[in-house]
Design goal:
Four copies of one chain form a homotetramer. By secondary structure, chain A is an alpha/beta fold. Chain A has a domain at 90-111 and 172-301 and 334-457: LDH C-terminal domain-like (Alpha-Beta Complex). Chain A has 17 helices and 13 strands. In chain A, strands 7, 8, 9, 10, 11, 12 and 13 form a seven-stranded antiparallel sheet that branches. In chain A, strands 3-2-1-4-5-6 form a six-stranded parallel sheet, with helices on both faces. In chain A, helix 1 (15-25) runs parallel beside helix 2 (41-56), helix 2 crosses helix 13 and helix 6 packs across helix 15 (391-412).
């Protein structure tokens, strides 16, 4: 059994930390310590208690003890792996990110990656990540660092910019959902049942705006099934994890009509939830208004919903932590533990993650953060060269990639002029006059100034 | 004296042909034949008559005889130089290009380069240029080919795509106007008088969206004078060829406020007329409405004005041709004859032209058509490596360059799906819903279908 | 069970065909037809008979029938896979390739890849491969093409140059031997036993001159064990498949002293047999004379030995074909069938093969044929981006890669001047005066003129 | 008149400093101060006295006063231009550089650029240049720095590596001699007389191993005249500055037979003296022995001759300084002052210099030091994109460029292992066994250890 230490920054998180703790309890061949670190120490303690109960279940396979670290360095020293999933700022800031632009006619379905919300979120996240990178260099320079926080590209870029020899990559599950969608396409068109891990997809681009250029299951070329599928389902929409109209009452569901529309126009399958995809494209296309979004079969997620949801999740967590509610173990479907085991030498996995472009992504600059398949094996992560995107899709990706690079470089230099240039160049801001763009940017900065000290001293 | 044959395709043109004929009459060290070819033969004959009178003036230095060719091949056989300045289609088509989008809220100040009008114009021009390239390969493969027609990038790309060994480049005078503007800046800020050919500028980017990163006259760094200049003139605007408010009654004038605004935000000086620059940027910035354009101190040029103007110019030309009005000789300020003399070995000139990127334009793909300085000398045109653009400006150029490449590749393959992708991706279309974009594209195609046979068979 | 048709060009071959037939008989999940094509029809028939016996053995798992095709097209029509292992020319030509240079002081241990012998062999092989590529385009454009013939890079390049959409790659087992060597290193230094497929290596470069930059087994960084290993074994040498002095009586054995010497000087492990490696380097280093080679613990393989060996193998084959000698089944250790099964969707494999550089090999030109890891899965081969080579090693590889590209381009154009430039630039020719280089080249061309008709018409 | 300060490091030099002082005295439009700095202060004083006499001549046009600086910083502070021409070490070291390799059969015609001598010279020069770069950053970061010292590429690279924003370039006159040679070719083949500045050449590659791909004078394509010229003169040789056999008694003369041989084989004209060219190529080609060199019509320059020559030049200098011998003014034919005047805004010049590759040199890595044409104008140096070299010539240049980059990176890190890798990879060392290469390297290091302290602490 391989003994490892895992540091979890943002160790009080509900979403990522709890699914990770479950998968970890079910993992064969590894054991050791998980050090939870969080600025919300009670949340970390709660997760520690839950983990303790999970590890005590009879189905638990691995042996892990959980500690709560009271400082970042304490968590990191001796770590073999570092996971990072934080909320930069609070929902108060996210409320501004998502909703302040609405008075200028800019609607965001998520608001954490690109668009005005993504820019502001990057502004408050990157300086924090610069600090993480310095701490990792200081405490555990050889550790593998798995980032889960959005905006993904900016976070990963900040880690590499600050500590170029860092062994970091960024994990996201959006591509997996599109793989699930393709399994549905296969089933609907041929009756054949497949699991997402049984199909091979060549996904490439940037995080939340990746595209599939090839997808195969046995003798099936899955992309070639799409035109027929779309004849049947384009109008009604189709959702891989529920009924087609689930988006009407589930803020995270969508009908895949954006994805199908893009496929028809560009010849490649955009591989993220429609709520994400829409934000990388001109505002007038899919997000001109809430009604436009609805006509494409997805909704805008209000931050108030996230807050309520969080309160609910916290209550559940507290109940699990206290033992008032029993904890249960089942695989989450995520890949984190699978990648971690592969890095430990227990498996070989090909999965899509975010890394600086070293040649794997044709058409994007070397050094930009790109998402492609990588081979994970004993102590190594090796990017796989992606098939070139169709020219039309590539142009859309290039535009966003250039904006992200401009944004990150400007943030790094605390250059508000460059940051505003990146803000105004967001596709979601396409309909904004320069005056309005400036007013909105200033407003959003003011709304979140508590988290923007690095820029306003 | 160097004896040469020049073929002029579009030899009935008023603007370019007539200024060229004047400069040619004044050129030292060269002589020979100019073969005018035009589908409007009377217009070519008229220019022949005017040229005959010009050459007969006492100030005429060179010896050139002018002929009217009745076929393209007749003009090209034996040619050392080929000039091309054509109007692809008629003003009827241009009227659709420029004004059809207005009912969708898209306003174009020129409409011949990018934006919806530029896309449609490229669709009807490129197939014609493919024919020119084949004729040049057949008749005069060693000739130098100077293109003057818009959309410049698409025309030059079509020539190289069809006949890769062609010796072609594209000439445009927009950068010269910005050099004039910089001379004004120098005079206003220091009292020093300079001529545009006395200053050195490093201009780079793509045609009509070039940017100056360096500009020097003697000990003066001209770009460093701009902040002070803008303090004085940003509000009122400033026009290099007339009073600041000339734009109010001159459709081709502008107050350079767009240029100054871009300089403030991106740190480099966009080097074309504001009417062109605005079309490369999101429609909401400078072209949201005629009023927005006016607030930035430029107007939208209606095609009806071009028609009236043309009628007037034709009457003038007829009068000159018939001898009813005397012809006069004065340098035009254009560079065509200067470049031509340099290629004949009579001079060495550095001037900005459009060529496939062979390394001269950092940040844009190799092979894309770019505009940078080149050294012109005896039989050679050698691109000069440009200083890298600031990241914000580069991102704007990259977006347009990718659109042009997508458009050209799709036109080459007569792929309407790809062409529409490029259409919808135009910055001027940024505010357009997908449905409206499709409707507009279809309408514009229908309006000009007489010229779009290659796509609709 | 997946039913496939495999065309085997050079289907009378003993080495590759026979190990392939054995592995194929042992393969699970596939079946169908193997069409053997060879200009030596009796040899193909003999292999057919042997295969028939192999398939009849009780251990045989798959169901394959073997046919002998009487024309190339007959073999190719309907093929899903095409394997090519041919001897370009005869041993008569190879005798000239290997031994003619000896009178000029150039000694070759193999003589089939680079050096004077490799150049001449490429000259007679490439035109044949151009024919294969045309036949594949004509008969089975979607087939996967596995090349086994040397010179590997030139063969694969000829396939892609002639039919750019071909799905071809080149397979070689030299890296596997170095993996075996690393298993020995591990065992000698730690006592731990591992199989080569259990270790992960990042090998990159060009065929027969690949280098390992990373090699891991469980927690062991295998390259870091090498300095200690070399302290013990550098003087005596070490052979992964037998005693250290086996090279003294086995023309294919070697003591790995070249490899260890290169590791000491360049910090990466050259990953091919020493007999191959030495030929990519200046002749004075390891091949100044037979004695120099011996001092590095390898021998020069005389072609006469290959001839005797062939006669022996033919007799064995005949005996097996006729049933005079029983046939037996055991895995060969090769990867061909494993890759083929992966392409059928029955496995996922990472293995090193030769492909045009699409970004996987930093420091070599795009389009050059490079050898790196690739992911093989259902219908797809995806190159993995290699870790950059140390600068010193990269310079050595670049030199040879440039020579190969020059050679291939010149052969394609039947340009003897360019071919001679590549000949004179071979590292093995480094000590040759220009006059001698020319004399030698002319002699070698004359010796093999029966196979060089494409150049001398 | 433009008033400038010029710092001359190595200001006691005879060759470069004295021709510079003459050209400077003849320069129109500039004046000011020249600060001579040299570790040999008396030599600097002598030059000061000579300069004083030169400026006093009636033909002197400019007004410059000469000072002798007693420290580097004193020379640099306030400088607008910095010229550097130093002898790294003494002739004692150069004697080892050039002659120590002879006992291993390696003959060098110059020994200051590549080959064993070039490597050792780079080892002692680069650390000095790192110091210069730091001093320039400290004292005059905006100054233009003109390097004249060999090895040119290593010196320029050291300046940019140490101070990336430096405005430095390297000047060399070898290309000019080849331009003179082409004027001779023109005269011999057509009777037409031309001066080298009247022809335009596209020269590219690396210093002392540049190649001309185009050369034009009026209607003449000069390279196309070479085949006819070579029919007449290849056997006898031809020298542009004297009779064909001048090399027999002049150590700096040569018969251009190397250049003609390379042209015949590679289709481009190598553009440096044959003595330099031969050193970039395998030792067996042109430098196998003194007799081989003689057969190609050039000699090996013994360092003893340089010493005698220096003594003679010093005596002459002393005589001029004291007034015992009159000083005279005539243009040197060098370009330094012409470039300097262009940078002052008084001229526009296209000339070949050495700069980091920013795209001007296709086929070599970005950042490597390359020699191509550049446009010199008011305050700007802009590289001109070179025509791609023929593949065979490019491969030869790439090999040397990779060696230089490896050498410079290794020197920068004081990594003797990497330096030795670059040493052994020199084409002139191609015939050397590894043992001999090591022995020679160690010997040469020991011979010059007084200057190699940075490596041996």
């Amino acid at each position: 059994m391989k003994i490892i230490k895992i540091a979890y920054i943002g160790g009080g998180s509900r979403l990522w930390a709890q699914s990770f703790m479950r998968d970890l309890a079910l993992a064969e061949g590894i054991g050791g310590e998980v050090a939870l670190y969080d600025i919300d120490i009670p949340a970390a303690r709660r997760n520690q208690q839950i983990a303790c109960r999970l590890q005590a279940l009879p189905q638990a396979v691995s042996r892990f003890t959980y500690t709560v670290a009271t400082s970042l360095d304490q968590a990191l020293i001796g770590a073999d792996f570092v996971l990072i999933s934080i909320l930069p700022g609070t929902f108060r800031e996210m409320d501004s990110d998502v909703h302040a632009p609405e008075s200028f006619g800019i609607y965001q379905s998520v608001g954490d990656t690109v668009g005005p919300g993504g820019v502001l979120r990057a502004m408050r996240t990157v300086p924090i990540y610069e600090g993480f990178a310095r701490a990792i260099r200081r405490c555990c320079p050889e550790a593998w660092v798995l980032n889960l926080t959005n905006p993904m590209s900016a976070c990963v870029k900040a880690l590499y910019d600050t500590f170029p020899r860092i062994k970091a990559f960024g994990c996201c599950h959006e591509v997996f959902h599109t793989q699930d969608f393709l399994c549905c396409v296969l089933r609907e068109m041929t009756g054949v049942q497949a699991q997402r891990r049984d199909i091979y997809t060549d996904a490439s681009g940037i995080n939340h705006f990746t595209w599939m250029t090839e997808a195969r299951y046995q003798e099936y070329d899955l992309l070639s099934l799409l035109p027929g599928f779309m004849e049947k389902y384009f109008e009604t929409g189709y959702y891989e994890h529920g009924p087609a109209d689930q988006w009407e009452h589930d803020y995270f569901a969508y009908g895949n009509r954006v994805k199908m529309d893009l496929f028809r126009r560009y010849g490649a399958l955009a591989a993220a939830g429609d709520r994400h995809l829409a934000e990388f494209l001109p505002g007038a296309w899919y997000l001109a208004s809430p009604e436009t979004a609805h006509s494409w079969h997805f909704s805008l997620t209000p931050v108030s919903y996230r807050e309520q949801n969080q309160a609910k999740k916290e209550a559940e967590a507290a109940a699990m932590a206290s033992g008032a509610v029993p904890v249960t173990l089942a695989p989450s479907g995520e890949e984190l533990v699978r990648l971690l085991r592969a890095l430990c030498g227990l498996d070989m996995v090909v999965s899509n993650v975010n890394l600086p472009n070293a040649g794997q992504m044709p058409g994007l600059p070397l050094g930009s953060i790109v998402e492609t398949n990588c081979v994970f094996t004993n102590g190594l992560v090796k990017p796989v060269v992606a098939k070139p995107l169709p020219a039309g899709a590539l142009a859309l990706v290039q535009r966003n990639c250039a904006n992200i690079d401009l944004l990150c470089d400007s943030i790094k230099q605390r250059d508000l002029n460059g940051i505003f240039a990146a803000f105004a160049a967001q596709p979601l801001c396409d309909g904004l006059s320069l005056r309005d763009a400036r007013t909105l940017f200033d407003t959003m900065c003011r709304n979140t100034e508590a988290c923007l000290a690095p820029y306003f001293h």
